[in-house]
Amino acid sequence: MTSRLTTSTLSRPTCRVGLRRLRWTSTLAQKRSEPLASVYSPSVAAEPASDTPTFDSLKGKISNETLRALTSKPFNLNQMTLVQSFVTELLPGLSDPYNASTPGNHNIPRDLLVRARTGTGKTLAFLIPAVENRLKTAQQHAQEVVGSSGLSSSGLVTRAASAFRRTSPGPLILSPTRELAIQIANVALKLTEHHPNFQVRLLVGGASKTAQLSQWKSNSRDIVVATPGRMRDLLENSSHVRESMKNCNFLILDEADTLLDMGFRDDIDAISKFLAPPRTRQTFLFSATLSRRIRQISTSLLSPSHRFLDASPPTSDSPALVDAIKGNARVPWAVDSDDELTTHTHVPQYYTPLPSIDAQVPTLLRLIAHDQLAHGLDSKIILFCPTTHSTAFFSTVLRELTSDGSLPINNTRVIEMHSKLTQSGRQRASNEFRSGVLHRHGNKRSGRANKIPSILVTSDVSARGVDYPNVTRVIQLGVPSSEALYVHRVGRTEPRHRADLLLLPWETGYLRQQLTQFPIKELSVDALQSQVAALAANPATEKLSDPLSSRFVSLRPLLDTEAIRQTASSFLGHYLSLSGQLGVPHGKILDSVAAWSNMFGVEMGMSICLLA
């Protein structure tokens, strides 16, 4: 029997903004019977460091089945990334289970605080010791049970280990979003492909809780991947889950900074109280940043003798974190800033200040055209919008403008992603963007697949941890709600490509006040226009036809009035919450959002003022 992951999904209301319509739809609950691995297969590839060891060097440190998955099918990996080498260097001791009879025999620190960006291979870095710990813990328990019975039989040990795996959970991995949780679960399935009957339980919102409980009661729970809200709900309301999880002796927080940014601190604290006590529990914290809140929660959850591993490259402006030796413990030195952020400093980053509101859409189109002229059919862009309504609105705008020759390549696919889509809809959007191809005739097996440029228009559900391969550019439409979110958004692009930030006139203060430590260069509208014109003049590329501004002007009368109003209202809430960081008074924000709405011919008037 091979590893399997099953879950159920519930559909949520879907926001669809179209020409002359704004429609909210809902669908009936749907139940999945096939493994999610078959429909959601993420890329876990990451660039290895030139001087890191190979996975073959783990022979004798991990089980042969795990090593086989890494070095042959399904991963076929050779060299480790930096974070993978840092963590696996501590094997096999890092994966040894706690032994109550010899608690002082652990020479390797059991708890880890790891700073590593998304896309660096960190998922495998924590899954390898997690899987090995699960196997060793089950074997240790089985040997103790059989030994105490006075019997000696390998068959009895195997049966005792299987019984243990059906009743006691393995490592619990908490993820900030269900998309990232699904991604982690699928990587775990691939890693354990050669371990018979190894199972992964996925506990996330947006899926049937009844189905998840049924799977929990009837199957092994070797690895548990969960979102905090659903995990806490089950712990507090299901005695079966609560009784079982008190034996969980391994906790992993992935994207810990994002978990805290999303307000899950109380849930994490509550969940940890249901698990095995800290004395016997092993805990890993993985984070792209090392803020004051990360250091606070590490003090709460980690052993004083935890190991700090810094797999993020130092920046020229911020000192790299180093280990300080205090007795036998290695702990990170305190950093000077409250929120030291490590971003992808090797990713070229640009901001374009808009001279006026009506330059927003034409300039956005030029950025997209710039990428298509540079990368052709390989162009793969993620466009981050600040709100759900703006995501739906700009998806509609881009679909219309990409269908009438406004971009160098006519067959550009625009994919919409936000929290109002159903879980299956979000998975489908992720899979479409990840594949980078369009299947003809509606049949993936018999139809012909053509590579086409893609634009994923998304809210921040795609900023937190989900990897998409071969992204050529990230464009942020407006300012993010935090510096950490800026880091996560930029982290979605490939290192050799670039990130752009498009700022309306009232947003430029955010750059001066909040993002001063990042290597962001100015790219004016005129400079961008010149670059696009130069690329379009290249005979090897397709030329732009009519001016982009005129295309947008012709589209304005066709846009749905109510959709514009709702987008403007969502902008208002977003920018009012950031007025301090923007350095702009509320009155100026009200006037500016009203002007944005008026640009589309929609008078907001008192409706905005009343909303404020």
From TrEMBL:
GO terms of molecular function: ATP binding; hydrolase activity; RNA binding; RNA helicase activity
Signal peptide: none
Helicase C-terminal domain sequence ranges: 369-536
Keyword match NAD: no
SUPFAM superfamilies per UniProt: P-loop containing nucleoside triphosphate hydrolases (SSF52540)
Pfam families (UniProt xref): DEAD, Helicase_C
EC number annotated for this UniProt entry: 3.6.4.13
Enzyme class, spelled out: hydrolase
Organism domain of life: Eukaryota
PROSITE patterns with a match to the protein in the record: HELICASE_ATP_BIND_1, HELICASE_CTER
Functional note: RNA helicase.
UniProt free text on domains: The Q motif is unique to and characteristic of the DEAD box family of RNA helicases and controls ATP binding and hydrolysis.
PANTHER family in alphabetical order: RNA HELICASE
Family, similarity comment: Belongs to the DEAD box helicase family.
Name of the molecule in the record: ATP-dependent RNA helicase
Species name: Scleroderma citrinum Foug A
